[in-house]
Amino acid sequence: MTAPNPLKTPDLEFKSLLFLVLAATALFLLIVWPFFGAVCWAVFIAIVFWPLHQRLLRGSQGRPNMAAAASLTIILLIVILPLALVTASITQEASLLVAKMRSGEVDFGAYFQRAMQALPAWIRAILERLGVGDLGVLQQRALASLGGNGQALTARAFSIGQVTLDFVVAFFVMLYILYFFFRDGGAIAQSIARSIPLRDDHTHRLLTHFVTVVRATVKGNIVVALVQGTLGGLAFLVLGVQGPLLWGAVMALFSLLPAVGAALVWAPVAAYFFFTGELVAAIGLALWGVVAIGLVDNFLRPRLVGRDTRMPDWLILVATLGGLVVFGLNGFVIGPVIAAVFLVSWQMLAAARQQDVAAPAAREPD
Predict the structure, then answer these.
(1) Cα 98 from Cα 89, distance rounded (Å)
(2) In contact, 181 and 188? CB cutoff 8 Å
(3) If DSSP codes are grouped into helix, strand and coil, which group holds residue 118?
(4) Are 331 and 323 contacting, i.e. CB atoms less than 8 angstroms apart?
(5) How far apart are the first and last CA of the chain?
(6) Dihedral sign for Cα atoms in the order 273, 114, 233, 306
C-alpha cells in the first residue's frame, strides 16, 4: 500500500491556495494603486447609473455592447461635459480674481482691516496675539506663492504638466473601465458574490448594503453640494461679492462636510458685512444661509443619504471627514461606505452569535 504524500493533503493544498490568492491579490492591488481613484469612480458611477443602463439594455434588445456605449455617451453628455464647462468657468473666474488682487482692485487686506477696526479692542488684541491681525501681509505672501516671478512658474511648469497628464490618463482609464463595468457588470457581481467566503444570505446583505450606500452617498452628497453651491453663489451675486461662481464652487466643495461645510464660506462673509456696518446685507445673508442653505443640509441630506444608509448623522460626518483625510476627494464616498460595511458586518456577526446561542437551547428537552 502506497503511503500518502504529505504534500498532497487537502489541508496543505487549501492553505497553499489561500496563500497564493492573498499574495496575488496584494500584488494586483499594488499595480492598480496608481489608478485607485479611476477604478473607484468607475465602480461608483456604474452603480449609480446601473438602473439607467438596465433600461437601455432592454431597449437595445439585449445587446450589451450597444447598451454600454449608450450609457457611457449619456454620462458624458449629462454629467462630465457640463462639469467640464463649469470647471473651465470657475478656473477663468479664479484667474480673474487673482489678477484683480495683484492689481489692487480687490484688496482682501483692506477688507479685513475694515472688519478688524469694527471689532472691540479686546477681540483685536486676541487676534493680534494669534498672528492674524494683519491680513495684508498674508495676502502679499499668498500672491507671491501664486507665482509672482516667471522663474517660479517655469520651474513648476513640468510638475503642473505632469499632474495634468496623470489626470487625463486616469480620466480615460475610468471611462474605459466604466464601459466594461456596464457591459459585464452582472457577471462581475455574480463572480464576486461566489468568491466571497460567506454564507449566501450574508453575502447578499453585504453587497446590497454596499450598493445602497454608494448610490445614496454619491447622489445625496452631489445633489446637496450642487444645491448649496447654487444658492450660495446666487446670494453672493446679489450682494456684489467678487467671484460668485468661484465662491459657489468652494461652497459646494465644502458642503461635502455635513452640517458645517457651507457655513464655512458664507458665515465669514456675513460677519464681514456685519462688522463693516452693512447690516441689511449681513442679516439677509445670515438668514439665507440658515434658512435656505441650512434647510438643504438639514432636510435634503438625511432623506437622500441617511435614510437609505440607515447610519446616524454623527457617523456620516466622522466617516466623511476621515475618508477625506485618508483618501482625498474620493473619501467622501469611500468613508461612508467603509462605515456602512463596518456596521453591517458587526450586525451580521451579532446575529450569527445569537443563532449559535439559541440553537442549543432549542434542542434541549423540556
Answers:
(1) 14
(2) yes
(3) helix
(4) yes
(5) 52
(6) negative
> How far is 116 from 339, CA to CA, in rounded Å?
43
- For residues 87 and 94, give the distance between their C-alpha atoms in angstroms, rounded to a whole number: 10
Nearest to 346 by CA among 205, 218, 189: 205
For the segment 253-282, what is each residue's pLDDT rounded down to a tens digit?
A: 887 776 667 788 888 888 878 877 788 888
8 A C-beta contact, residue 262 and residue 293: yes
- Concatenated DSSP letters of 61-92: TS-HHHHHHHHHHHHIIIIIHHHHHHHHHHHH
Q: What is the pLDDT of residue 324?
A: 82
CA angle at 243 for the pair 240 and 248, rounded to the nearest 5°: 100
The cell for 141 is: 505672501
Report the distance separating Cα 337 and Cα 38, nearest Å: 17
> CA nearest 289: which of 313, 317, 316, 261?
261
**Residue with the three cell numbers 445614496:** 216
Q: In the structure grid, which three cell numbers stand for residue 310, read together?
A: 440607515
> Span 24-40, mean pLDDT?
87
Q: Which long-range contacts (CB under 8 A, 24 or more apart) does 138-143 make?
A: 138/109, 139/101, 139/107, 139/108, 139/109, 140/109, 143/98, 143/101, 143/102
DSSP state of 60: T
Q: Among 135, 133, 140, which Cα is nearest to 104's?
A: 140
Q: What angle do CA 203, 206, 207 make, to 5 degrees?
A: 85
Instruction: Round the average pLDDT of the chain to a whole number and report it.
Output: 76
Backbone φ/ψ region at 240: left (φ over 0), alpha (ψ -120 to 50), beta: left
| pLDDT tens track for 89-145 | 777 777 777 776 676 666 555 555 665 565 566 566 665 665 555 545 554 554 455
Using the structure block, give the residue that is written with the C-alpha cell 452640517: 259
CB 68 within 8 A of CB 53: yes
**What pLDDT band is residue 179 in, cutting at 50, 70 and 90?**
very high
At 73 the pLDDT is 92
